[in-house]
Amino acid sequence: MKQIKQIFSTSKSSSLVRYTFVDVLRGFTVILMFIFHFTFDLNYFEMIKLDMLRSPFWYFLPRLIVFLFLFAVGMGLYLAHSKVIKWKPFLKRFFLISFWAIIISLVTYTLFPDNWIYFGTLHCIALVSFISLLFLNRPKISLFIALALFLPSIFLNYNLPWIELPHSSWDYISPFPWMGASLLGIFAAHHELYKVKVPENRLTKSLNYLGQHSLFIYLLHQPLFFGLLWIYAFVSKVITY
Prior knowledge:
The chain is mostly helical. It is built from nine helices and no strands.
């Protein structure tokens, strides 16, 4: 009952102490995302030739990126809402992420109807963030559920069913098993992983900046990469002919 009362309570305070480790982790993940998406775009425009589906490195890299983003989501939720759910800032961010998730679906459906994104990273983050609120102060249950989701997925290739359309989406992130990453983040936050000291230098300051603006960067970087490479490919063809 105490947990249920906490979920439906409201706090007037929206302040949040930022921990450098969490933002640096997000920033590091952003760099990995840059590497993967720029390489994917180069491969798409046939400027390089890679088998990104069968290569172990390119198979696991995007999964590591998703895991780290959602792990940071879990830690961030704990830091912001473990004492009391601050519904106003939470819902503001939830609807912001959901809005951009819908925009991504609409844009990709228009431009790439054969590979449009119907449940990608932002869709997953929005849903998982909401569900994770139930487990903010239940670290043992969070760990148990995370393992119950990930272990069958890793060793048995079994995941709980979720929405899956016939076409191949360029970004499909089912909440099962990926909600487990957020729950592991909650478990790690209970053990104060966020307090890990990060050395102050140019690199960590840059990563910290990227981490604090990860949503904006996430939305901007791929259209920028793809657009610039499309222009380059178009101009190259014009010059060639």
